[in-house]
């Protein structure tokens, strides 16, 4: 256990250094803020344009729904990218995977550690985006003190599910070429569409709603929105589930996805070793 | 003069050599990538989901607006038409038609923006960052020793990148038409092609210029590319007509003007006008007319290519002077 913890700590420190030491701290903070805020502003402008030409009275509930979902989606993009890119960047860019891989540590824990710095930066970006929305864009948030423990529990479980999904992708990327950007865009895109992040599931066709209901992150987003913005009138189609049920569902999902991630990671690793692909480079 | 020297100063030989270099550098991108079929799924199909999300947002807004128009109340038996109650069924039908038309136009804007996103990301990650990447993996010194012009190398990367990215761009367009039912009305196909190719040349010219600059900036390059995703999607109007930014008093026009230095913004504005009609969105969200935008794009294309040439020459001189061309991880 102490080896796991030491691996995690060192990998987290390494990840932080790799993420942040290319520039001055103030520039890194600015960089960490500009990206998510610009992402939020894309949605703000989409809303502004639609109001300008389609609905002069506006729709503050729809806007708040979308804004909160998008803010928490920063976790999805960062955590997934932070996990599955470890293998590809070590393999293709730094070409250090062979040295890390043969060292007497758990490579699974090493990846989790490397992702930790991304989670920290993402948490900061989520907070900044929400504060910005409340302060300047009239986003309607109201987190009751009594709901704080449940909110924290939901966030931890949601992040656990995300890490497990990221490791699953990492296991697959042992065997694939340099597809970091396709994966970085595509997999979060999958959740962006089907998990009710920006719009309720009712907008999707029936099969799309079914896909959305099968993904635990849908419930995470719904619960987070219920706790942070309880007064929104947008019909999420998930009103049949109460908050503790969703939390329980997230707990079961995180355990199940952890098991799945270990399985997929081991299978990917086995076939990569068998095919001699652990340290391949596919630069073109 | 030795025979070899004569051959190297021969104009036809140099043209042939550089064309072969263009083909040689584009070859691995076109053929090499296709030898790895998984990239079609990862690089062309998966990213469509992100575009789909933006499409569904507009459909969500459209549905919300339609619900308000069709919701009958005691004070507004024909629903709400804008800020007032609809006078009768005719006015209600007019507002419904307007919402549907605007939603289709916005969805089409997203689809066109999605095709341009593919090229912009390719410019960032496979053009701008490429020389830095080549340095990291040890190919750059081989390129620098080879006898061709460095612009031919960048040209080959650009041609290969355009062909490679076209798959994703076409997938996005096809998905827009078939899955989301977007209707494009192309009145001037030749002008459309001219705008499209002028935009691509200007974009890749910018990428060629960035390639040299990124090499100078070293490790910041990767982060700079990451930083030029969402902020550029926003300031250049990839997912909404750029004129929307101009309607925001104060900072809106400043951001829009800054974003217009990326050729994709002007190109997208022109492409949207050519495929949706200049009367779409009530004609109030366009920047310039199409002809003016084409002229701007041509100027940008020439300017960026010239700047790319100068940046590359500067980089080469600097690298020779400081001897850092092959220093990795800096």
What this model shows, in words?
The complex is a heterodimer of chains A (284) and B (330). Chain A has helices at 2-20, 25-53, 60-93, 97-102, 107-136, 148-173, 180-194, 206-214, 216-228, 243-275. Chain A has 284 residues and is mainly alpha-helical. Chain A has one domain (2-275). In chain A, helix 3 (60-93) packs antiparallel against helix 7, helix 6 packs antiparallel against helix 9 and helix 9 (216-228) packs antiparallel against helix 10 (243-275). The longest helix of chain A has 34 residues, at 60-93. Chain A is globular. Helix content of chain B is 75%, strand content 1%. Chain B has 15 helices and 2 strands. Chain B has helices at 3-9, 11-34, 38-45, 48-70, 89-128, 130-137, 140-145, 150-178, 189-217, 220-227, 230-235, 243-246, 251-259, 263-276, 290-322; strands spanning 80-81, 84-85. In chain B, helix 9 runs antiparallel to helix 14 (263-276). The relative contact order of chain B is 0.11. Classes of the chains: A mainly alpha (284), B mainly alpha (330). Chains A and B meet through helix 2, helix 3 and helix 7 of A and helix 2, helix 3, helix 4, helix 5 and helix 6 of B.
């Amino acid at each position: 256990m102490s080896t796991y913890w030491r691996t995690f700590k060192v990998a987290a420190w390494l990840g932080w250094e790799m993420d942040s030491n290319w520039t001055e701290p103030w520039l890194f903070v600015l960089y960490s803020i500009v990206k998510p805020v610009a992402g939020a502003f894309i949605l703000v402008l989409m809303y502004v344009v639609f109001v300008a030409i389609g609905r002069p009275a506006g729709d503050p509930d729809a806007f708040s729904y979308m804004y909160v979902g998008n803010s928490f989606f920063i976790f999805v993009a960062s955590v997934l990218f932070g996990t599955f890119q470890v293998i590809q960047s070590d393999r293709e860019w730094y070409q250090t995977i062979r040295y890390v891989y043969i060292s007497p540590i758990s490579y699974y824990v090493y990846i989790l550690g490397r992702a930790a710095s991304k989670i920290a930066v993402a948490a900061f970006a989520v907070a900044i985006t929400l504060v910005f929305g409340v302060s300047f864009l009239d986003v309607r948030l109201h987190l009751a003190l009594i709901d704080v423990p449940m909110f924290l529990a939901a966030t931890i479980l949601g992040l656990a599910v995300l890490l497990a999904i990221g490791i699953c992708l990492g296991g697959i990327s042992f065997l694939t070429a340099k597809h970091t950007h396709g994966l970085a865009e595509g997999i979060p895109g999958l959740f962006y569409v089907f998990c009710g992040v920006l719009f309720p599931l009712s907008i999707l066709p029936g099969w799309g709603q079914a896909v959305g209901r099968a993904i635990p992150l849908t419930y995470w987003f719904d619960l987070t929105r219920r706790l942070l913005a309880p007064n929104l009138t947008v019909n999420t189609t998930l009103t049949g589930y109460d908050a503790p049920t969703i939390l329980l569902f997230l707990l079961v999902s995180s355990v199940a996805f952890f098991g799945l991630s270990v399985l997929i990671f081991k299978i990917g690793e086995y076939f990569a070793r068998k095919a001699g692909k652990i340290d391949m480079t596919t630069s073109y | 003069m030795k025979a070899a020297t004569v051959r190297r100063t021969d104009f036809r030989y140099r043209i042939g050599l550089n064309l072969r270099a263009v083909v040689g550098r584009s070859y691995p991108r076109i053929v090499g990538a296709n030898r790895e079929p998984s990239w079609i799924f990862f690089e062309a199909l998966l990213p469509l989901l992100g575009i789909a999300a933006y499409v569904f947002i507009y459909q969500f807004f459209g549905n919300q607006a339609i619900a308000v128009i069709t919701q009958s109340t005691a004070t507004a038996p024909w629903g709400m038409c804008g800020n007032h109650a609809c006078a009768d069924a005719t006015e209600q039908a007019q507002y419904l038609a307007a919402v549907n038309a605007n939603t289709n136009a916005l969805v089409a804007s997203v689809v066109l923006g999605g095709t341009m996103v593919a090229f912009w990301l390719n410019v960032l990650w496979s053009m701008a960052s490429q020389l830095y990447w080549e340095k990291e993996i040890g190919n750059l010194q081989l390129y620098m020793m080879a006898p061709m012009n460095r612009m031919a190398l960048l040209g080959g990367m650009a041609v290969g990148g355009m062909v490679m990215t076209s798959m994703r761009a076409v997938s996005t367009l096809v998905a827009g038409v078939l899955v989301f039912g977007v209707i494009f009305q192309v009145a001037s196909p030749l002008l459309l092609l001219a705008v499209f190719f002028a935009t691509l040349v200007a974009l890749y010219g910018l990428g060629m210029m960035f390639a040299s600059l990124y090499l100078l900036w070293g490790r910041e390059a990767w982060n700079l590319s990451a930083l030029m995703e969402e902020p550029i999607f926003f300031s250049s109007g990839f997912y909404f007509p750029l004129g929307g930014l101009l309607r925001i008093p104060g900072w809106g026009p400043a951001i829009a003007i800054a974003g217009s230095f990326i050729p994709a913004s002007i190109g997208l504005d022109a492409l949207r006008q050519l495929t949706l009609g200049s009367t779409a969105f009530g004609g109030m969200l366009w920047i310039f007319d199409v002809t003016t935008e084409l002229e701007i794009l041509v100027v940008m294309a020439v300017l960026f290519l010239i700047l790319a040439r100068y940046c590359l020459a500067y980089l080469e001189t600097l690298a020779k002077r400081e001897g850092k061309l092959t220093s990795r991880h800096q």
